[in-house]
Amino acid sequence: MDSRRKPWVILSSLVLLVTFLLYYSSWTTQRTPLKYAEQAISKPAFKAPKENIWAELSEREAADVNAFILKEYAHLNLTEQPKNANENSIFFVETLRPNKTDAVPYLHGHGEIPQRYAKAAISMEIDGLPHMVYYMVGPLPISSESKISPLQYVFNNGKNSVQNPVSDFFALMDYCIELGVSISDITQNLLGASVNQKNPEDPNGLMAFPRPTPIETGEGGLILWIQFQRPGFGSGGRTLLPQGLYAKVDASSENRAEWKPKKFYYNGVLYNSEDEIRAAMSDPDFVRVPTNIDGPWTDTEDFDSQPDGREMPPPVSIQPYGPRYGLDRTQRFISWFGFEFYITTAQATGVSLFDIRFKGERVMYEVGMQEALSHYAGNQPMNGGLEFLDTFFGMGKKSFELVPGYDCPAHADYLDIEYHELNKTHKIPNSICIFEFTADHLLSRHSAQYSVTASRNTFLTVRYVSTVGNYDYDFSYIFYMDGTMEVKVRASGYIFAAFYSADEKHEKGEYGHRIQDALESSMHDHVINFRADLDVAGEKNEMVRMAVEPVTKTFSWDQPENPSRNTMHLVDYPVTEETGLDWPKNSREFYLVRSTEQKNAWGQPKGYRITSGTGMGNPPHLTIVNSTVLGESGRWAEHDIWALRHKDTEPRSADPLNYFATHEPLVDFKKQANHESFEDEDFNGDMVFYFNLGAHHVPHSGDVPNTLMHTSASSVMFVPHNFCDRDPSRESVQGVRLQLKGHRSGGFAGEEFDEPNGDLRSRMDRHSHEEKKKKKTKAHYFGQTYEEGMKVPLEALEPNQAGYISEQNFVSDLGFNGSAIGAWHRDEA
Amino acid sequence: MDSRRKPWVILSSLVLLVTFLLYYSSWTTQRTPLKYAEQAISKPAFKAPKENIWAELSEREAADVNAFILKEYAHLNLTEQPKNANENSIFFVETLRPNKTDAVPYLHGHGEIPQRYAKAAISMEIDGLPHMVYYMVGPLPISSESKISPLQYVFNNGKNSVQNPVSDFFALMDYCIELGVSISDITQNLLGASVNQKNPEDPNGLMAFPRPTPIETGEGGLILWIQFQRPGFGSGGRTLLPQGLYAKVDASSENRAEWKPKKFYYNGVLYNSEDEIRAAMSDPDFVRVPTNIDGPWTDTEDFDSQPDGREMPPPVSIQPYGPRYGLDRTQRFISWFGFEFYITTAQATGVSLFDIRFKGERVMYEVGMQEALSHYAGNQPMNGGLEFLDTFFGMGKKSFELVPGYDCPAHADYLDIEYHELNKTHKIPNSICIFEFTADHLLSRHSAQYSVTASRNTFLTVRYVSTVGNYDYDFSYIFYMDGTMEVKVRASGYIFAAFYSADEKHEKGEYGHRIQDALESSMHDHVINFRADLDVAGEKNEMVRMAVEPVTKTFSWDQPENPSRNTMHLVDYPVTEETGLDWPKNSREFYLVRSTEQKNAWGQPKGYRITSGTGMGNPPHLTIVNSTVLGESGRWAEHDIWALRHKDTEPRSADPLNYFATHEPLVDFKKQANHESFEDEDFNGDMVFYFNLGAHHVPHSGDVPNTLMHTSASSVMFVPHNFCDRDPSRESVQGVRLQLKGHRSGGFAGEEFDEPNGDLRSRMDRHSHEEKKKKKTKAHYFGQTYEEGMKVPLEALEPNQAGYISEQNFVSDLGFNGSAIGAWHRDEA
To answer: Spans of biased composition, class Basic and acidic residues (chains A, B) (predicted)?
Structure first.
């Protein structure tokens, strides 16, 4: 009956091995930056000082862990390719990152390297219901010491498992198709199309999808809202093609045959049965409203338009001498002008950085994305109840090969992302890029009487892009020469739009703008949570809100003219307990994280400032108060920044499986941010911070076809504040000092104090054409500059995309790649 | 006695003419962008559709206006090179920009070109006191119709003149030197140096300067606070070298011989006379505190440091085919991918843009800087009373030639700034740059099942840099392909630091951080005001605060599972009267300016959003409430955005001469933003907006030697919001669509719906190495791309700075170039 997925051959380990080898051979075409200048500098091999203790499991480690679990937990009858959640399986294995208290003695002292552990998510039946259960496995490598134990200490609801509300994902998807077929008369009549069971991807057909999880559970049951979209295969933009018909299904029964649509919603009216909507449709006054049909308007490209200028290629960045950073590909360690850090990845959360140091001093133990929520609002059952917690879908897993020369400059370096799912290792080639870039503006400049100094703003970026269904997120970690660090997210892709009916009786514009004949833009909030475990010059830190405040002051020197003076001053407000903070009104507070032990040469505590950065204004937090759908799973979204005590038992603000149990999540952030004191004696001074990026997104016509990254950007920056004794970028930066006269700078630009004996005539002489030829401005460079022209190869201007490896943006070659739900496979029905 | 300035020769007009010619010849080395690709495209000459009616006066026009005034106002005995404010003179002439109501019929209809007028500032005596008086002169060219009349209609205090509080600037400066010399015993004892009257710029001496205006007037008198700095000639950083000694002088008398220091302030103690401080110094318990000595720590360059990577040049932007914009140099008109606008300049306010259109529709009549205030706070007489209104110093006049390849990419175009002061035309060559730049990130992207589309974010920038004493401001107007426009200011240069004494008894850190032995960072606010005369799809506009608000809703389709739902919705709050707005808490309001007449294809009013942009979070407004020194001159700094009725009588929010009369300014913004209704029938719908950029700047050790531009940036953006029917960048952008399979996009990336007949074995085959070689990814480009490698000349990588023209960053070659005060010259004493 279901023709979509033919039988999955049960593979022998031999076949698996061959598969791996084939993959490996195709993935070895690793992109590395070109060096094409004659003097291209060949650097010695660069080595990290320590091992990357956060590294994702190697393929060998993952295979060993899987084998160990299969052996030790043989009683679970673990299947390598499960058909549904009732078949037990190892969903994924990944590194269980070491506790910081074990890592720090290794990193910053002579401590032993922390023992290595894996985390395993096992899909298994408990009390007859499907669950996802976390275990820790180790120490690694597997030995007689190794064991499997429930992983519980990193969660705070007393459990290590979550019930899976959907026992058979494919059955659910099939039900949607069956439902569509069963009401073909209705869809054909109202929408001009119907679900094609033989070819569910029929471009002229309809697709039927349930509203994503969490699916509402009334009294333990499962309630589905199913909507119809056109597939939009011409552009991939099916979220722009809602059809305005929704069916509500009680899917509580184990027996799918008992599932029936109980309600229909169309054009603002709720119908209590199929018969009721059929009856209504036969009424001559029944209003049919236009629907959304795919067309060139969803195309993400305009190949034909030829405005002036498009016949020429745009400016492009080149880097003829190769990269200036050191990259240890084995340890995934980078060193760049004083910054040093390790890169690691996880299938759910993408790229994290660890042990970030600047000029040899500790700045951050960890920074990484925790969860990305998008929460919609609307007047109909789909967008009105729509919410995503995207790590559930695997934001690392959902990254793809980056487009060289576009996602990253042609001169970027690339790393792969690997993850281990269903007993296989998957490699996403060239999915992290690293590059230096010179901004279009300076880092610093000063024009004086006889000199001008200009220093270039060249920065380092580590980037990956995660495409979760309709949306592409660009995650960038950016480093600047003065010690500033930035975390920036840009979003693009198709919005998840809502159906628009001119006829429907609700307040127009209450949830978005009309952006097409039958389309409304559907307001939503993006809140993307990051952990920043700052260790500013060590672990012992404090946080102070340094406020800029108006004040009236009386000064002795001001008398008698000003009995008092309206001015301003600084007031420090220590953050004394775990709390959430918002970006201050009028930007009038500096959020400083300062060492309580280390001071700079001037006696100032070494500090970093946490500030909203170069996104669009201040990143927002969630608008909705006590969201009905989010439950306890988005408490981190309620403020902009959180200051917490560091605890090994609280390594994250969220867990991907929170999406399965939003009201009783594995990680309940509210229990972490629970007002514990920073002033108690038992507190060791190690603070950890969470912050949110995102946007209140009210898309408009310019979001069609795709949201644009330049205006969807949000950023938080960590800026040194008295961290060094003086601006450290001076030591690294490349620039020029123009000496206009003599060898000093003189006074302010434009001043002419120094002409004690000059009259106008003699000065004019100096400006004469003859003189001009002789007196060239002297340019003194700091840092290396370009010394000669060069031949730039095409690859440096326009990388050959034929090397792009992914054939169809696959991640997994084994089955539907979507989520924990989507891990299952089936034999032919 | 004063050896600094020898006699200024009175020049005949012949000499002046020669001077002009000499200048002109040296300025003709105009930089234009290189084209070096073989296929470099030669575009036909590009012409503006209309005349630039805002253009600065030509040299000829200015000379004619000056001559006309000299003739008509012969009774004023106008001197070409005045010695002090008691000698009448024409300080400057510039274009009096046409009234918008005259300009619009010309620009957007068949109206006559508006009559051209000049504005003249005449320094003259009124009732025995020096004044600066504004006149309008025209129509131009000068004819029998032309006349001179008081320019009053653009001011709102009923006057066209301001009293000049300082009648003899040089006398004041000389007094400071005399004072220094007269207390050499004190300065030598406390500061280890003294003022060198014979060589006031002695690098080992002291410099004495009065606290800048407004100088406090007690009962009409003139009170000066004079401080001592080391000259810091090695780096130009004298504002980092305060010495901690301050003298208070009553300078009310016309007779300078009567001026005497009445108080001294040192190390927190106020002394009532010279004798008192001398007596205190002889006390063995008197505390002498360390002072600030120049050294390498103020150097803006580190030539010697060689960290890894500095031996290689950084990435650089090239543009081998030349610019893709059209530039009419005569009319200063630019056209770039749908954007069109005119550029003009003014000596006080720098670059403004006029008649900005996008895709043929009106967006903005005018955008330009109005005033830049910096307001300090501190516990001593200098920084405690320090405040600047920088247009007074001439922020256009204070721009300098830009450093090619550094201030702007090597491929930038340049324009000059001209102004007319004291009967001369001054040209600042290559002081405005125009360039395209490709960002390090995309404008849009989407990864689908079978395709990836990536569009480059190439933007256009118009930039100039103004150096007002210690600080460099980078002003950038930035245009994006989707119709977004950005106004961005970055600051660098030396901070104006305060003296720090460890001994002094005040709360440390109340006004800044210690950043050197004897230096405190001195908190200050920068508030930089811009006018944005939005005409979104025409003049008839409205402003709405579209708020994103939490709400609890009951939906029919939600029953019975959710009796009500916590969600959010949009609420429109019309702005009904002239008012100041602040950036909203949690970014939760969209400030939309919408046409009340024009709608897009979907019935949405065409709109633009005003939003805080890519600076550091939200730009702030002034902290200080009712500043004692600012008086009524900074009312525009009290909120972030202002919405006003457009009036020809209110073309600006400030006037440079407000600095002379802060409590009774020529332009009192509060009288403009006076709550007039936008709903009255008499209102024609033409709104004008003001917005502020800037920063609460609490400098720290990393601000030494110079503040850094990447973190000092602030920005406001104007983003289309339902302005077009669809994203217009699609028509302009350059990018690539990678077709991984077939010719469609398929579904979401990572989905594998389309393998109805595929089993694993056959799919593995397709991924085999052999297959991979055959099946290359197809790259489909939109917009032109690079087709071949090329030889890039050195000039494109590293422009030859020997072509930098300014010999010593002069602006005026005639005397001290600083301010209206600084316009005077003197014969030998």
So the answer is: 758-771
Q: Indicate which residue of B174, B355, B390, B533 is catalytic.
A: B390
Neighbour tally for B109: CB within 10 Å: 7
Confidence of residue B742 (pLDDT cuts 50, 70, 90): confident
Handedness of CA B547, B552, B556, B560 (dihedral sign): positive
Distances (CA, A) of B403 to A312, B344, B429, B706, B806: 26, 21, 11, 18, 11
Scan residues 82-111 of B and list those with Cβ closer than 8 Å to A: none
Cα torsion A631, A637, A642, A646 to 10°: value is 50
The closest of A244, A298, A291, A292 to A268, measured between CA atoms, is A244
Instruction: Give the H/E segment covering residue A17.
Output: helix A13-27
Residues above pLDDT 70, as percent of chain B = 88
CB contact A605 to B (< 8 Å): no
Q: How confident is the model at residue A172 (pLDDT cuts 50, 70, 90)?
A: confident
At residue B86 the predicted structure's pLDDT band, cuts being 50, 70 and 90, is confident
Would you call the peptide bond into B705 cis, given omega within 30 degrees of 0 as the criterion? yes
Between strands A687-697 and A714-721, the pairing is unpaired
* Prediction ipTM score: 0.93
Q: Do B317 and A312 touch (CB under 8 A)?
A: no
Which domains, and CATH codes, for chain A? Answer: 169-299 (3.10.450.40), 735-782 (no CATH)
Read off the pLDDT of residues A514-534 as tens digits, 9 standing for 90 and up.
999 999 999 999 999 999 999
Q: Tens digit of pLDDT for each residue in A737-754?
A: 999 888 888 888 877 544
What pTM, to 2 d.p., does this model score? 0.94
**What integer pLDDT is reported at residue A218 of this predicted model?**
56
What does the mean pLDDT of chain B come to?
Answer: 89
pLDDT digits (tens, 9 = 90+) for B45-59: 899 999 999 999 999
CB B390 within 8 A of CB B374: yes
pLDDT value of position A823: 59
Q: Which residues of A243-275 are buried (b: 16+ CB within 10 A; e: fewer)?
A: bbbbbbbbbeeeeeeebebebbbbbbbbbeebe
- Answer whether B162's CB lies under 8 Å from B660's CB: yes
B781 noted as active-site residue: no
Which pLDDT band holds residue B284 (cuts at 50, 70, 90)?
very high
* A755 pLDDT above the threshold of 50: no
User: Three-class SS string for A741-808?
Assistant: CCCCCCCECCCCCCCCCCCHHHHHHHCCHHHHHHCCCEEEEECCCCCCCEEECHHHHCCCHHHCCCCC
Cα(B474)–Cα(B710) distance, integer angstroms: 11
How many of the other CB atoms lie within 10 Å of CB of B129?
Answer: 12
How far is the alpha carbon of A142 from chain B, nearest alpha carbon, in Å? Answer: 31
What is the C-alpha to C-alpha distance for residues B666 and B672, in angstroms, rounded to an integer?
Answer: 12
Q: Contact at 8 Å (CB) between B155 and B655?
A: yes
Q: Do A701 and B725 touch (CB under 8 A)?
A: yes
User: Which residue among B618, B620, B709 places its CB closest to the CB of A443?
Assistant: B709
pLDDT tens readout for residues A84-94: 777 899 999 99
As a residue count, chain B comes to 829
3 state SS of A179: helix
- Tokens representing residue A331 in the block: 């340890």
Q: Could you tell me the CA-to-CA distances from B551 to A213, A619, A624, B314 in Å, in that order? A: 22, 21, 7, 52
Distances in whole angstroms, Cα of residue A316 to Cα of each of A272, A308, A439, B480: 60, 19, 12, 16
Please name the member of A406, A483, A717 whose beta carbon is closest to the beta carbon of B735: A406
CA distances from B12 to B8, B9, B17, B82 (A): 12, 9, 9, 15
Choosing from B135, B266, B471, B511, which is the catalytic residue? Answer: B471
Percent of chain A with pLDDT over 90: 76
**8 Å CB contact between A687 and A644:** yes
